[in-house]
């Protein structure tokens, strides 16, 4: 009787390997996509914190905040309005600053175009908020609430608050 020698893999074994590789690829690609979205969101949050620092420093000297819309941010990420300069708006991040008529209260908002969160900051309670948004949506001035002495970010989630 002749002994049959097995050379290589059967078709079923190859199909199982291909399915396993496909599943692992799907998991890896989805994980990478979520990682990128978190990075975009963190970029917008970083820009918000830089904007807060610049606005508070300006307020310390001038005793008023500076408002601006996304159209006031130049293509290289610089905002210059009067004596106020903010240099740290990253590519694809849109920023808004809304100021009360007295100049004593301000709300700042940022969002990365490819991120999924809009971040906001209210000066009178020193709180950072966020809310869900669509990926690919660019921040508009209307997305940031008008600045008043009340809680302007009702319906938003609290990210951090000073006590």
TrEMBL record:
Record Pfam families: N_methyl
InterPro entries named in the record: N_methyl_site, Pilin-like
Entry keywords, A to Z: Membrane, Transmembrane, Transmembrane helix
Transmembrane segments: 12-32
Source species, domain of life: Bacteria
Presence of the UniProt keyword Transmembrane helix in the record: yes
Name the record gives this protein: Prepilin-type N-terminal cleavage/methylation domain-containing protein
Protein source organism: Phorcysia thermohydrogeniphila
């Amino acid at each position: 009787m002749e002994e049959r020698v097995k050379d290589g893999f059967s078709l079923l074994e190859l199909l199982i390997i291909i399915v396993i590789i496909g599943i692992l690829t799907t998991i890896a690609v989805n994980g990478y996509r979520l990682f990128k979205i978190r990075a975009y969101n963190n970029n917008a949050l970083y820009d918000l914190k830089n904007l807060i620092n610049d606005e508070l420093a300006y307020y310390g000297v001038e005793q008023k905040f500076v408002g601006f819309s996304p159209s006031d941010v130049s293509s290289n990420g610089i905002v210059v309005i009067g004596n106020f300069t903010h240099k740290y708006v990253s590519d694809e991040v849109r920023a808004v600053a809304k100021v009360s008529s007295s100049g004593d209260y301000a709300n700042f908002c940022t969002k990365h175009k490819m991120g999924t969160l809009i971040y906001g900051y209210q000066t009178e309670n020193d709180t950072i908020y966020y809310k869900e948004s669509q990926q690919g949506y660019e921040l508009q001035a209307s997305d940031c609430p008008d600045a008043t002495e009340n809680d302007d970010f009702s319906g938003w989630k609290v990210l951090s608050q000073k006590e």
